[in-house]
Amino acid sequence: MQQWTTGLPDTEFYGAGTKGLEAVVKEVLDTPEVAIDTETTGLVNWKDIPLYFSLAWGHRRMTLNVSALPYFDEAFKDPSKRWIMANAKYDTHILANAGHNIAGSLVDVQVMHSLLYEDHPHNLKYMNFHLFGWKWADFQDTFGKISSTQSPQQMIERAERENFTLLCEYAANDAWGTWQSYLELKRQLQGAMTHSLFSGAPLRIKTLWDLFDAIETPYTKVLWKMERRGVLLNVPYLEQIKPAAEMEIENLNRQICKLAGRADFNPNSVAQMRDYFLEQLKLRPQKMTKGGKSGVKQASIDSTFLEYHAAEVPMAKLLLEHRSVSKLYGTFIVGIGERLDPNGRIHSTLNQDVARTGRLSSKDPNVQQIPKPENDKWNIRNAFIASPGMDMIVGDYEQLEMRLLAAASLEPKMVDVINKGWDIHMGNAAMMYGVDYDDVKAAKKVDKQVKEGNLPQSAMTPRVAQLLGYRSDAKQLGFALIYGQGARATAATLGCSIIEAEEKIETFEAAYPGALAFKKEAIAETEETGYAFTILGRRRNVQEIASANKGLRKRGERIAVNTQIQGSAADVVKLAQILIDASNLEYHFGCEPLLAVHDELAYESPKSTSAEALREIKDWMEHPFPHDLAVELGVDIKRGATWGQAK
DNA sequence: TTCCCTCGCGCG
DNA sequence: AAAGCGCGCGAGGGAA
User: Fold this and answer.
1) Same domain for A80 and A148?
2) pLDDT, tens digit (0-9, with 9 covering 90-100), for A178-221
3) Which of the nucleotides in strand C have any atom less than 7 Å away from a protein CB atom?
4) Distance from residue A249 (CA) to nucleotide C14 (C1'), in Å?
5) CATH number at residue A142
6) Same-domain pairing of A580 and A558
7) How far, rounded to the nearest angstrom, does the alpha carbon of residue A435 sit from its chain's CA centroid?
8) Range(s) of the domain holding residue A277
9) ∠ at Cα A75 (A70, A78), nearest 5°?
10) CB A559 within 8 A of CB A532
11) Residue A176 in domain
12) What Å value separates CA A554 and C1' C3?
């Protein structure tokens, strides 16, 4: 593995007291854009600290001991400075953990790369190879594998003693590679023309560089603040749930083993379950698994299969219950409890460069997959709480994707349904089946009251049931449109025959011809340009759409439609977050961001100001553009002590 | 031990 | 031939 290449500027080294450090500090102060990277004690964003750091700009590259860090505080405090980094939020945390807060911009080359090459990896090593053909060693190639017995800190300390030159070269390479990637990617982004999915673009974005500079760069800072603050967990609440869940799992295990007649029966083993249901009970498989890389397809023992047999096969029912409880326990109760900082907060990493549509992803832990209360008997969302003296404010876009479909297609009836303030699924049902909106609404109300026991079962007349069926059809068909779902899959989700599903799809499309036309145009444009574009001009290459393989081509069409809608929804939420940040609620109200779950944003604010903060947040969420779209963006927003209560 | 893959499943 | 979009996590099981 090549460690460094010839023709690079010499690597300089500085620590506190090294001759020439003052001159370097002065030059960094006068340089508007500087690449920086850190070598750290570990990989935990709220805990680990820098041991070395490296800088690069112009024709300079250097490694510095952490002792030199304080000399750069004036530069860090400069709000106009642009710090070029790979995985910027991480290094910014590491510096902050050592008491050095960056006031300038966080310019992330990984995010730059993701705007151009969304189907590639974006780590620095890959990028340097992809952009320049460099094959530089990464950390583990250079210093050895990180393991339970060898921390990054120990490896760096050994390198200090045994091969200091290598350490300096390695660190400087990272800053240099970041700097060079920045220059190249900036050039490429500036040359990449783009346009908005919407005619009469709501913001002036001509190139991908505009998108990066105006949206993604400030967004990195917003996300950093969220990660930094983290969210407070009610630890005693989780501790209280834990033994209850453990007991429940043990009970289920006992029952399952008894039913199987074996003590070593493991409900977590799909292989054992397959054997039991297929070989022992001789049940027929419902469907096969995907098979992955190896292509080995096996009978699927998933919830579809288990639910199909739940009525007559006791084991199927028990296993469903076991899976549900053990998922809650393992992933959400134990998994989240392991990631607390000393203050009882968790700091999920919000990834800006993963999702091909421009959505965020969340990991360690993934706060975007915390169960909904209706699927969670312990209501784990109530373990996410506001800080003492504060309220949690949770704002939810209502049917954002359907609204954007309406705004993009300008389908008059759909626009009308939305701007009348109707429930979209009910409105769609009324339009689809030519019934009165108020009748659908009344049916939904009857349904609710019957479920709550305020009305007798007899209130559920055939007509009410029919209207409810219309609404649930309309809801599912709305999703089907956005996802490009075909008749077969629609039939499965609606629980009807394929013929019936085809008829329903036709009814929906006939009610909204503009929506169908939008879908066709979206596909045609992607066929023509190779890309799907979002409202802010983010683009996604959809190679599949030109495939000779019909299946792949159809997939390309689904991606083309869905990316425009899902990606535009992501743009809207992103823009709202940036505007809320820029309006400085932190200063005015002490209000700060906590969570972002696709179309849902959570903040916390002192109780005395939370009502005002809520109004401000709602306003920005509903009006993120200089001029409003053709439809209103409805946001449901509430305050409460916990995530669950504020919903 | 650690790594990788598969499966199943949580969320929008 | 079949075909719903976008993610991340935990467990099992086999390989390194």
Assistant:
1) yes
2) 999 999 999 999 999 999 988 777 788 999 999 999 999 999 99
3) 1-13
4) 27
5) 3.30.420.10
6) no
7) 38
8) 232-346
9) 135
10) yes
11) yes
12) 8
